[in-house]
Write a structure and sequence with these properties.
Molybdopterin biosynthesis moea protein, domain 2, three-stranded antiparallel sheet, Alpha-Beta Plaits, 10 helices, 12 strands, alpha+beta, single chain
């Protein structure tokens, strides 16, 4: 039996290694606290764009090493891991899965990301043992009109505190899912380069705004230091033309293009002189 199991594992690793070789981009995702229903939704969303494989880390690591691709990702696998294989750009992959956010129930021992408050109001829960369960979880629950109601806003966990077993049960009874979860891609490998999460997580609006600002600053700098480029050459020529006309007028250089300006200037000076001497 052991030999048969070992043979199956070896076959799986070999087959996975061959699949890895067919793709340009390899990524790994941390599946800790990630509900299976969301994993299945991600698989469906990526069906035409990528393959998602969930297996033991040891088997994924061996397959990466055997394929000679993406083995740099091995050190990042510390919990349940999904391997993603695709020909998409790593940034496109991250953007696509980032949109697949969802809510998840609280588990005992998890840290509250913010003050978890159960708002006052009616519930669909009938009277019974659930009332004491809610109260044990810190919920101000009462029975009114044959229903369990929340008498006042109840904080069941403060931000940064561990969620107790009683609080987790109370939240689940009320259908409150306080955690936001997403397919947590830790890094992606492409052509020997590893892009970590902090690099992949691009704020597109900020990036575009920054590019526009930098482009504007670069244009102004090149124009002010008179560095000709394809983008500024027309304005530089216009400025040079105007500067040369002004220089010719001020220096009294008789030239066909500025003679009219010089005559106008001389006429203005003559009129000013007449007014001054009263002629």
């Amino acid at each position: 039996m052991k030999e048969e199991t070992l043979k199956k594992k070896q076959e799986f690793v070999s087959q996975l290694a061959e699949r890895i070789k067919k793709f340009r981009v390899i990524a790994v995702a941390d599946l800790r606290n990630y509900p299976d229903r969301y994993l299945q939704a991600v698989r469906k969303k990526l069906r035409d764009e990528a393959e998602v494989v969930v297996a033991k880390n040891s088997m994924i690591k061996r397959a990466l090493e055997q394929a000679g691709r993406g083995k740099e990702l091995s050190e990042m696998m510390v919990g349940p891991t999904a391997l993603i294989m695709t020909n998409m750009n790593p940034f496109q992959l991250y953007k696509l899965v980032k949109q697949s956010k969802g809510k998840a129930a609280a588990k005992p021992g998890q840290i509250a990301p913010y003050d978890i408050v159960v708002p006052a109001g009616e519930t669909n829960l009938p009277p019974g043992p659930v009332l004491s369960e809610l109260k044990q979880g810190g919920v101000n629950a009462q029975i009114k009109g044959g229903k369990v109601v929340i008498a006042s806003d109840s904080v069941v966990a403060k931000a940064g505190q561990k969620i107790t077993d009683a609080a987790a049960k109370a939240l689940q009874k009320l259908g409150v899912e306080p955690f936001e979860v997403m397919f947590n891609i830790l890094a992606a490998w492409e052509d020997g380069l590893v892009y970590r999460k902090d690099v992949l997580d691009v704020d597109e609006k900020k990036l575009i705004d920054d590019l526009r600002r930098v482009a504007s600053e670069a244009f102004n700098l090149s124009f002010n230091v008179v560095y000709p480029t394809k983008q500024n050459i027309a304005l530089l020529l216009q400025k040079a033309h105007l500067d040369s006309r002004n220089l010719a007028v001020n220096a009294g250089v008789y030239e066909k293009e500025v003679i009219d300006l010089m005559l106008a200037k001389a006429n203005a000076q003559a009129n000013a002189l007449k007014l001054k001497i009263g002629v």
